[in-house]
Amino acid sequence: MADGLFDLCGQVALVTGSTQGLGKATARVFAEHGAHVIISSRKQDACDDVAAGFRDQGLSAEGFACNIGHEAAIAAIFDHLAESHGRLDILVNNAVLSPWRSIEDTDRPLMLKALETNIAGYWSMSTGAARMMKTQGKGSIINISSIAAMRPRVMLALYSTFKASLDGMTRSFALEFGAFGIRVNTILPGLFDTSLADAFTPEQKHDAMAKTPLRRLGQPEEIGHAALFLASAASSYVTGTSLVVDGGRVLVG
Q1: What is the pTM of this model?
Q2: 1 pLDDT band (50/70/90 cuts)?
Q3: How many domains does the chain have?
Q4: What sign results for the dihedral spanned by CA atoms 62, 126, 158, 227?
Q5: Do residues 208 and 163 touch, judged by C-beta distance below 8 A?
């Protein structure tokens, strides 16, 4: 019975930004627990390559490109879901645009471009998912935020601002769609051992780990395990919450 709580067999999961990093690791965890996963990012060849790699390992996966900053692309992926699968059980909003700019160097066009992906994209993807999930009477939507929402960083003001707004979006969707059995939650990762961490110098990584109570970087699959909990029956009474997965980093001043 305990194993069954995390069984995703027969479920369809869409993970945006899943050709690398935390998104790819999350998609893999879902597939390893029985879900059919849809690998999605902006480039079709990258999606196909990751999906093929999953299938080579006996997992169920397909690739479908979608730039969540474009409404037409979002409409296309939901048309595909309806025609090819007739359902969507899990949506993970993970794709992100995170410009490295000071506030004074952030002009309006860049702000609006980031807004299209980080807010409008998440909103439209969640709305499309909720419409499908309503007909099923259940579903799980997971928004990937960041501890930058709680601890802003210089040069990442746009990223921090939009990630902070996901908390309100998550709570609003959870409130409005809860009556249909749809659960909506947020995960806030800390610093993980992905290509994004490669932007840090060895000294900066060492400093980050020293300020983390668990004294290490997170491993990508650990976000996958957190997402698995929120996607599965194990969290059947959890909605509208924000789960921090950061090794305790936000506890340190």
Answers
A1: 0.95
A2: very low
A3: 1
A4: negative
A5: no
